Structure formats: structure tokens, C-alpha cells
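Holo model, zinc ion. Inputs:
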Amino acid sequence: MSKPKPLAAISLDLDNLWAYMKIHGDEGWDKYPSYFDIFIPYVLDLLDELKLKITFFIVGKDTESEENRKYLRMITDRGHEVGNHSYYHESWLQTYSYEEIEKEIIAAELAIERATGQKPKGFRGPGFSWSKNLLRVLESRGYLYDASTLPTYLGPLARLYYFWKSDLSKEEKRARKELFGKFSEGFRKLKPYYWKLGDEKRIAEIPVTTMPIFKFPFHLSYLLYLSNISTGLMKLYLNIAIFLCKVTYTPISFLLHPLDIIGGDQITQLSFFPGMNVRSERKVRIFWEVISLLKGKYTLVNISEFQNGL
Ligand SMILES: [Zn+2]
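Output:
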């Protein structure tokens, strides 16, 4: 009998239309416009076709409208896990005091549970922001894992690129000065581990996997970018990443974002956004190829199952 395939985790940060507009500094984001009516049924059908059950990280603010709640409920009805992605999706949680972060986590957690019928067991900070205070709050609320770290040296470069592409004012840039993390994030461990929080308290960390040794990100946004140069190059890059994970015994936690899967032809408000000139059809084809490649080597599950199997 052949050996069962190792587990790999798949998760999606359910950033809504307004969250993209906010990070980009576009007017009107504070009316909290939503594209859930288009995106959620679309992605759920796609995941069904691929026979995938994944983790969706949800933003608390998005549960406030009844329309949004209708779509959020579909996520758990179709068998997916939900995680906490903060209440206001502010990418500088590391500047919050313990009390501020506690308020944020609890508000989001209750809102997500009310909307989806499922209590989140995991958390991912917006823009990979996190702090020791955050971990302590998560532990005190009974969370099983944090999934906020992205060990890469490229964070400062990604931030410069974002600022360059955005219309942010000086003040807005100052508030976002640690967006995507510091260079030192690259020295963080790639394999899942436990944060020790004193008094025998601990919480699991499930980093977003980057390429072992080089720490280059290979989540879907990066793969999609490479595929615009050449699909062959994208596959080569992903195969190298998988190979390096295999030889270093690094389990894979793979990250998706809505704009990796849906194009500017469907979400017209974001057609100016980087990568949104690519049509949905093409994005789906790339997504399909990436998932097939991963499926060849791994059993793909949500983060809770992944963590259980470690
Ligand atoms: Zn996000």
C-alpha cells in the first residue's frame, strides 16, 4: 500500500472590496462596499469542483450588513472553517495595547460566530500584523492557532511597491509604516511551532509557508504574477518551492486572496488594481493548475485539520 500523502493547509483571507480600497487610499471605502454577492458564490462553487474544504479568515466589520451575513453563512453551510481576521482590518495591530487588541479580537469573534454559526479557532492578522499581546489575547480566548506570520525578507520591498501604486497621504503612509513587516521577519521559523507565553500557556503558530532557505513567498498572488511572465516559469517556481519543502520537512500552509481568483471583468470597481487586468477565466485556470500540482503531493485540508495532523 502506498503511504498516505502528507497534509497541506489551504486558507483564504476574505478581504472585501472596501478593505482593498482602504489599503489603496481610495475614497468611499468607509461606506464599506462589498463584493460578497459576486465573490462568495463564485469561490464556493470553484472549491466544490476542486473538492476542497479550506479556512476562510473573515473580517468582523463585514458581518454588520444582513446582505453580507447571508453570504458568510454559505461558507460554513458548505463545510468550510472560519477564522478571525480582525474587526476593522487595520494592518498595524502591532501598535495596539493589550486592551485595544482584546476589544478588536472579541468583537470580531462574536460577530463571526453570530453570522456563521461557528466560533473561530484561529486568527490571521491583516497585512500579517501581529504582536505578543495579540498572542496572549488569543490564548486567553481559547484559540488553537495564530496564522499571522509570513517569514520573508521581502516585506519592506512589498510595502514600497504598495506605496508607489497607491494615493496615500504622508499621514496614511506613517500609520502603515510597518505594513507587510520588517526585514527581520525573514528570520522567523517556517515550520509550525508553539509560542510559549509563560505559566505553561502556549499557542500554535502556523506560518504562511515561503520557500525554504530563500524565504521567497509562493502564495497564489506571487504565482499569478509569475504566470503573467510565463506559466512554465510559474510551475518551475512552485515545483522548486515544493521540492525545498519536502527536503527540509517543511509542511505547507498555502494562502489565497479573492483577487487571485476573480478578475477585473467581474469586480469592475477594482479594475485599476495590480493584477486586475487579468480576467477571471485565466485566474481560475492558474488556480486550478496550482491546486492540481499541490494535490499531486499533498492532501489539502483546512488549517485546523492540518494542525491536528502535525
Ligand atoms: Zn486581509
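DSSP finds twelve helices and nine strands in the chain. The longest strand covers residues 7-13.
Archived with the compound record.
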